[in-house]
Amino acid sequence: MSLPPPNLIANARKAMAVLAHRDTPFIFNEWYVAAFGNEVTRQLLSRTLLGKRVVLYRSESGQAVALEDRCAHRSYPLSRGHLEGDVLVCGYHGFRYDTQGELINVPSQHNCPRGIGVREYPLFEQGLLLWIWLGDPALLGTRQPPRLDWIEMPDWECSSGYFHHPGNYVSMHENLMDLTHLSFLHASTIGTPDYASAPYELDLKEGHYKLMRNVVPTTLSPVWGKTTGLDGVNTAARIATSEFLSPALHQVSVTFYDSALVPDNRPEFHIRTAHILTPKTQGSLHYFIVHGRDFALDDKAIGEFMHEQLFAAFNEDVEGLGALESVIQEANEDSYEISVASDAPAIAMRRYLKKRADAEADEKLIATDRP
Amino acid sequence: MSLPPPNLIANARKAMAVLAHRDTPFIFNEWYVAAFGNEVTRQLLSRTLLGKRVVLYRSESGQAVALEDRCAHRSYPLSRGHLEGDVLVCGYHGFRYDTQGELINVPSQHNCPRGIGVREYPLFEQGLLLWIWLGDPALLGTRQPPRLDWIEMPDWECSSGYFHHPGNYVSMHENLMDLTHLSFLHASTIGTPDYASAPYELDLKEGHYKLMRNVVPTTLSPVWGKTTGLDGVNTAARIATSEFLSPALHQVSVTFYDSALVPDNRPEFHIRTAHILTPKTQGSLHYFIVHGRDFALDDKAIGEFMHEQLFAAFNEDVEGLGALESVIQEANEDSYEISVASDAPAIAMRRYLKKRADAEADEKLIATDRP
Amino acid sequence: MSLPPPNLIANARKAMAVLAHRDTPFIFNEWYVAAFGNEVTRQLLSRTLLGKRVVLYRSESGQAVALEDRCAHRSYPLSRGHLEGDVLVCGYHGFRYDTQGELINVPSQHNCPRGIGVREYPLFEQGLLLWIWLGDPALLGTRQPPRLDWIEMPDWECSSGYFHHPGNYVSMHENLMDLTHLSFLHASTIGTPDYASAPYELDLKEGHYKLMRNVVPTTLSPVWGKTTGLDGVNTAARIATSEFLSPALHQVSVTFYDSALVPDNRPEFHIRTAHILTPKTQGSLHYFIVHGRDFALDDKAIGEFMHEQLFAAFNEDVEGLGALESVIQEANEDSYEISVASDAPAIAMRRYLKKRADAEADEKLIATDRP
Predict the structure, then answer these.
(1) Which positions ≥6 away from A353 have C-beta within 8 Å?
(2) What is the least distance, in Å, from the CA of B368 to any CA of chain A?
(3) pLDDT, tens digit, for every residue of B194-225?
(4) CATH number at residue B113
(5) Looking at the structure, do residues A200 and A325 belong to the same domain, yes or no?
(6) Is C52 on the interface with B (CB under 8 A)?
(7) Which listed residue, of A197, B289, C199, C276, carries a Cα 20 to 30 Å from A289's Cα?
(8) Nearest to B344 by CA among C115, C118, C109
(9) C3, C184, C323 ranked by CB distance to A77: nearest
(10) Beta carbons within 10 angstroms of residue A295's beta carbon
(11) In which domain, by residue range, is A272 found?
(12) Residue C17 falls inside a structural domain
């Protein structure tokens, strides 16, 4: 064919105009994960989050601290300095900052100028995760970091990993909302051919987009089959829920069982994966992953097998979406996307992200613009 | 000196304004070589041509297929998918396309939306070469791919090669139109000192620019001398014709003989080189080369020697014009070029390329702008 | 803290508006060092200076020559050509230039067009250094290259080095004007903790900014202590003068002695360092260094030890300011700098650089704009 009919393209472009994409400005007024807690130590850690340079460290009492990674004097990266107790000393001219980012000493003079400093970013540590507020300080209390109780539960076993992902966070959210890709992108790892066409239900609330897919009966790929004992069973069930919980977090919850057994008297196996997305730049992403299971808790071999298999699959996302990024970063006025029925939750989610970004732009609430 | 006089610079800039250069838009309504035919197989091949991503493969019957390398759904590179018979399956969500680029199946739903698809690019295979039409589909019949009969003739022996050239196609055409550079850029390979100052004749028709140079008497560089038996003969003749045949093709034809012998009773040796230029981006080029000779047809050693020597020389073009590219990509309003008499065919050619590009822009005939 | 008060930020930005920074246009009407003299030989040397491509070589008589590194014909880098005696032959089509940059031969034709050529840049060689004038030829006589007499004096021993510095020249000048950074950036090499807070005097004249710092009593870091014999003496004196001499040159002069001895009867040791800055691009710099001492003249081991220690320290500047560059190249309208008392000479110097750059822009005196 030459091209789809002009009205179809025109409609596609019109539809896209209200959806977030690679170049949509970041949403700052939200909690994001800055790091796994154990990455933040007495060594200064430099990390770019939503385009902002941040330096992270722990005070002597163990409290995590996040400051703007740029000395107020001549913009030197504070992460190249050192700690003296809780005080961060700039590595260039020795300006000293306390844990609130306030300038408390200038070595070349007796009196320290007052009211000078760098931004301190509020943090919230939960389990493995260190959340950060990069938004308007005045709106700090208006949102809470999402709570992932299972990460801390004793009857759940967790495993975690990190990818420096060469793609944008909107595409990754969309990837996660539309798991029909399991049959293709993950054909050789976690997917099965019947996944893409399985029936699903939607529950789309503003800011919380949920899709529940029932793959029954099915066979399980080895990562699930071998670890649950359902390997080779052709009446297996795979009930998967994908949930967009915030711009920073997508959760996948899956239940496995043998559908040939009666509901009240069959073992059920649960897994959950927190896909934690913190944009670094418009085209790159800190991709933190925490995966948990409520079975084979003490079986280290199963834990390692599952981790290896899953992260091989997540690496397929990273490679595939990295390749996608190279296409969409060249997008121009001729580009368009065609959506189908299974895109409904992703479309709703992208409309929401766009709305949030627009709202911040309109109200000029982005923290850096506010004194 | 400080600088040439202002009026000279002003005139030079004025003259350049009507000539194609590095940043002139591509000419789409033309046949270009997409690949050597043997590069296109049942493995998906991704290639950027005139800034467009194209995926190439062969159907089960052996027919070459070229489609836009971007799924209509979410822009995933189709070249990362796989073939099922003649059907190209996207590697992300499994959208299926036929060889015309028409979407024929969406795995997540029963009914496939109609009228959706990606662009199919017409192909024409001749001998070693696979030509592609990236232009306006409505203008497909208005131009023909240049015919290089000698590539297919049994009494010609051919050899081919490819460079991913780090320079623009206009500079390469100009390089080929002005072979006085043989005495300098190719001083140690195919050139001789007398080449630059040899007499020449011009035949400049709109869209077909021809220069015939008579280097007589001369000595031949080893690549020709050793292979024709004229090595060491100081009455050799080298009659070279450079022809711009299309934006995609320049042909060089040379006849060698001993000028001390009578015309009717002397052996003559012919070579031809097709310099096939397919812009990849404004600053890079797929540079395909086919070289043929009508002598020493069965002598494999001579064939290999000639190939090695010639491609060493073409590599000098690639390195030299790559260095040139780094200068001209920094060109600004202060830049200018001074032309001399031997630039006449190149100037005519660049004026023609500019005119073609302008015409496409004016008429908005560039295919991507037309539904 | 969130951020400094809005009026403080507003004032900081206002103050910065009149200061040179990374993106301030270059000052062309000034002498810069193009190379160490011994870098320029009969081999063509290509070097980008203030954004201009220059080719450097020596004539047969040993005279250094600097020409625009771009053939007037088709912009080929002349540095890829070769010398025939004093004549530079372009490596593309063999255009020949004399040492004044005048085109004297075009191989493809009998008559050479007149009045064509490339810019010749005036040079001045002094001691180790080859100075170049890239500015308006009409203003050549209005400024003199700074004279560094000690480089040529027999009772001084010199050592030199070069860094391709990944940062801008304004930041490097500022670094050199504010040596309070010795206590921090150079804490482990040439700095001591008391350096930053030592008393200083200023002498700020238009275009010549001088700061004299008296670090008395102090102890000397090994590079000075071990080489002067004052190692371990806790009554040492370190009297350091930092001088901005031109956009191209900053000089540091230091006197060491034992302050416990009477002035007339104590040995004094002097060192000088010429920090020679020639911008390459807005974000990179040719950083030439010449260091001299008037003691231990014949002690090769001391010379090598001092060179090694000093260049380790200069490398700290290169690394640190390279890291700084990556921050300030991302500067936007939200960025600001807060200055303190010890910044006075740097501020004066940056105001002067800005004024010079503005003057060139206003008067359109940049040489490239003048025929």
Answers:
(1) A20, A24, A27, A170, A173, A247
(2) 7
(3) 999 999 999 999 999 999 999 999 999 999 99
(4) 2.102.10.10
(5) yes
(6) no
(7) A197
(8) C109
(9) C323
(10) 18
(11) 156-361
(12) no
Same domain for A304 and A218:
yes
Whether residue B224 is found in the same domain as residue B328: yes
Sign of the CA dihedral with C92 first, then C97, C102, and C103 last? negative
What would the pLDDT profile of A262-282 be if each residue is shown by its tens digit? 999 899 999 999 999 999 999
Q: Which tokens is B338 given?
A: 């001074």
Give the residue from chain B lying closest to C110, CA to CA. B197
Q: Within this chain, do residues A169 and A302 fall inside the same structural domain, yes or no?
A: yes
- A69 interaction partners in chain C (CB closer than 8 Å): 327
**Residue C267 at interface with chain A, using a CB cutoff of 8 Å:** no
Cβ of residue C194 closer than 8 Å to a chain A Cβ: no
**CATH of residue B195:** 3.90.380.10
Instruction: Look up residue B354 and give its amino acid.
Output: K
Chains touching A by CB (3 or more pairs below 8 Å): B, C
- Whether the CB of C6 is below 8 Å from some CB of chain A: the reply is yes
Inside any domain, residue A150:
no
User: With a threshold of 0.90, does the pTM exceed it?
Assistant: yes
ipTM for this prediction: 0.93
Q: For chain A, what is the domain count?
A: 2
Under 8 Å between Cβ of C184 and A92: yes
Inform me whether the C-beta atom of residue A108 falls under 8 Å from chain C C-beta atoms: yes
Residue C183 contacts A, CB cutoff 8 Å: yes
A91 touches chain C (CB under 8 A): yes
Which residue does chain A place closest to C193, by CA atoms?
A: A107
Of C159, C155, C160, which is closest to residue C300 (Cα–Cα)? C159
> Do B172 and B128 fall within a single domain?
no
Domain boundary among A141, A168, A203: A141
- Phi-psi sector, A29: left (phi>0), alpha (psi -120 to 50), beta: beta
End-to-end Cα, chain A, rounded Å: 56
Contact between chains at B323 and C77 (C-beta distance less than 8 A)? yes
Could you list the pLDDT tens digit for every one of the 371 residues in chain A?
A: 667 778 888 888 888 999 999 999 999 999 999 999 999 999 999 999 999 999 999 999 999 999 999 999 999 999 999 999 999 999 999 999 999 999 999 999 999 998 899 999 999 999 999 999 999 999 999 999 998 999 999 999 999 999 999 999 999 999 999 999 999 999 989 999 999 999 999 999 999 999 999 999 999 999 999 999 999 999 999 999 999 999 999 999 999 999 999 999 899 999 999 999 999 999 999 999 999 999 999 899 999 999 999 999 999 999 999 999 999 998 877 788 999 999 999 999 999 999 999 999 987 644 444 44
Residue B341 · residue B197 · CB < 8 Å: no
Judge: C324–A137 Cβ closer than 8 Å, yes or no: no
What three-state secondary structure class fits B265?
A: helix
Q: Which chains touch C (3 or more CB pairs under 8 A)?
A: A, B
B229 touching A, CB under 8 A?
A: no
Q: Is residue C77 part of a domain?
A: yes
Please tell me the total number of residues recorded for chain A in this structure: 371
| CA angle, A48 then A54 then A60, to 5° | 135
CA C74: distance to chain centroid? 33
* B120 interface with A at CB cutoff 8 Å: yes
Residues A31-67 as b or e (16 or more Cβ within 10 Å = b): bbbbbbbebbeeebbebbbbbbbbbbbbeeeeebbbb
Q: Are residues B42 and B87 in the same domain?
A: yes
Q: Are B172 and B320 members of one domain?
A: yes
Q: Which of A180, A181, A327 sits opposite B53 (nearest CB)?
A: A327
Last residue of a domain, one of B91, B117, B142: B142
Would you say residue A146 lies in a domain? no
Nearest CB partner across the interface for C371, out of B6, B197, B323: B6
Among B288, B322, B313, B300, which residue's Cα sits nearest to residue B161?
A: B288
Are residues A173 and A79 part of one domain? no
Candidates A9, A183, A323; nearest CB to B94: A183
